[in-house]
Every structure is written in structure tokens, then in C-alpha cells.
Amino acid sequence: MPVVRGCNLPDELLYDVDNHIWFQDQGDGTVKLGMTTVATAMAGKLVAYTPKRVGRSVRAGKSCGTLESGKWVGPAKSAAGGEVVAINEDLVANPSLANDDPYDAGWLVILKPEDWGSVVGTLVPGADVTAPYEAKMDSEGFGGCA
Description:
- The protein is an alpha+beta fold.
- Helices cover 22% and strands 36% of the residues.
- Strand 1 and strand 2 form a beta hairpin.
- The protein is globular, with a radius of gyration of 14 Å.
- The two termini are 17 Å apart.
- The model has no long low-confidence stretch (mean pLDDT 96).
């Protein structure tokens, strides 16, 4: 697993480095997505998560939910457009799950993407994520995960 400045980035995932979002193909025409450890470290302890409702559409590059911490409120942007087929109710009830376990219990939504084939090529495979994330951290002045 790549570790960039103390931040774990599992190699079986695909990354939208610019938006600090990971994707995992579920093998059934859906994809699960969540925040990276970089995102949760930068945001601090999450206090609220408001996802788009099941059945709603997400446009590519737009929000699939809103996240709030003590120092940040903003969208979780999905590189893939599609229909929300599941939301993480546990995360709605306990937003800090994303801080504690961003790659398992802290996932955000599951989408049925409209054009996954074209999106997947824009994402960075975990095995190749170190250099792009180093550059992103430099550009954002982020020293790393504690």
C-alpha cells in the first residue's frame, strides 16, 4: 500500500487526486466512493455528512454529498456521474467514521455510473498514486497525515 507523507492510499483503489476521492468498482455495474486519508486529515474531525438521496442523479464533477468539519464545509465531488444507489447511513449517524476508517466503514455513496469506461481512465490507480499525491500535497501546502 502506498503511504504518502504518512497517509495510507490502498493500491486496490482508484483515485481522483484533485478532489481527494477514492473509487472502488463493485463488479456489479456500481462503484463505491469515499474520501482519502489526505482529505480527512486536511478537513479534521468530521461533524456532519449529508449525502444525496438514493435515486438522485449526480453529474460528473459535482457533489454526491456535503461534508462538514470544525474547519471546513464543502462538497464531496464525484468524477463519475450517475445514480446514487446506496448511501452510508452509518456515516450519516457518525461522520467521524470517515476519519477513523475512510476506506472501509467511512465510505460515502455507491453510484451506478453512466459512463464508467470513460471515467476510469481519468483516475489514478493506487500503484501509481504516490507521485501525483506528492505534487498535490505540495501545491496545497499539506505536510501529511499525523
